[in-house]
Design a protein that fits this description.
By secondary structure, the protein is α+β, with helices and mostly antiparallel strands.
Length: 288
């Protein structure tokens, strides 16, 4: 009898977890639609000006965009992202420094300080315990703040995001600490709407992804082996070890992404055979 009761309890718990995950997914999809709406509003007026440009369109003057406090580390060239060189003929990516044409695995890392090297390298966007974590200092987040800074110049977009409850916006990072845990920076001022980044239903920040897509790590079968892929709106393509990524096509466009309930866009803690933490990512083009 006790065995039957335990089985029934397990079924109920699994059912509750499934319903909770589904509710979280629906709420996250709603936030992603808000982000897509802001991009569409901006594009209708400006195209992708300052957000996505041709490979040779980068403004040569240094740092034409600087975010307000507390995001003072955000200084960027425009456009924020570029298309690959000869993008309609080659899969070659532009990477190494901003502006890039795609988000690489390294762009999901934190600062990698001695105090939090493991967490910073792990790619956990839900970890809010350290200033250096990916939640605040990864390229994926900083560049998303740059894009949001541009999108929120539009009055309609500012009005839209002002209706989002503050707890659903990326919060201010905690004070910076040195390797001994000593606070060496003053309390940060509260976030401003100028570079606001919406959170998903699990409290993780949503990121902007250019047409070139984002690199993830996925299991290729039921085993433990994983391979690197590129996710685009046109499909998911194997990147390594054998590159099967095609040139950008008409179905490749920018999108927004959530890391899902686990907080990882990709788990970077175990080089060679990391866990598959990309399979629960939620993308704004899903279901369209």
């Amino acid at each position: 009898m006790i065995g039957i009761i335990l089985v029934l309890i397990a079924i109920v718990v699994a059912g509750i977890r499934h319903v909770s995950q589904q509710a979280g997914r629906h709420a996250t999809e709603a936030q992603l639609k808000v982000c897509e709406g802001m991009l569409a509003e901006y594009k209708a007026v400006n195209g992708y000006k300052n957000i996505i440009g041709a490979f040779d369109s980068v403004v040569k003057s240094p740092f034409p965009i600087q975010l307000p406090r507390p995001w003072i580390t955000g200084q960027y060239a425009t456009p924020m992202f570029v298309l690959p060189p000869d993008y309609n003929k080659s899969w070659e990516e532009t990477r190494g420094e901003q502006p890039q044409s795609a988000l690489a695995l390294a762009d999901f890392k934190g600062s990698g300080s001695v105090a939090s090297a493991y967490r910073a390298a792990g790619g956990d966007f839900g970890d809010a315990t350290d200033f250096n974590n990916p939640r605040w200092v990864s390229n994926a987040i900083r560049w998303t703040q740059g894009v949001m800074f541009i999108l929120l110049k539009d009055p309609k977009n500012r009005d839209l995001i002002s209706k989002i409850p503050p707890e659903q916006i990326l919060e201010t990072p905690p004070p910076y600490k040195d390797t001994d845990g000593k606070v060496i920076s003053a309390d940060q001022p509260r976030y401003t709407i100028d570079a606001a980044v919406p959170l998903d239903a699990w409290g993780n920040p949503i990121i902007f992804v250019p047409p070139g897509g984002m690199h993830v790590l996925l299991k290729v079968d039921s085993g433990t082996d994983v391979k690197e892929y590129v996710v685009r709106t046109s499909g998911t393509y194997q990147y390594a070890p054998t590159n099967q990524v095609p040139p950008l096509g008409p179905n490749d466009r920018p999108f927004f992404a959530s890391p899902g309930p686990d907080g990882y866009f990709a788990d970077l803690t175990k080089p060679g055979k990391p866990a598959d933490r990309s399979s629960d990512n939620v993308y704004s083009f899903m279901g369209q």
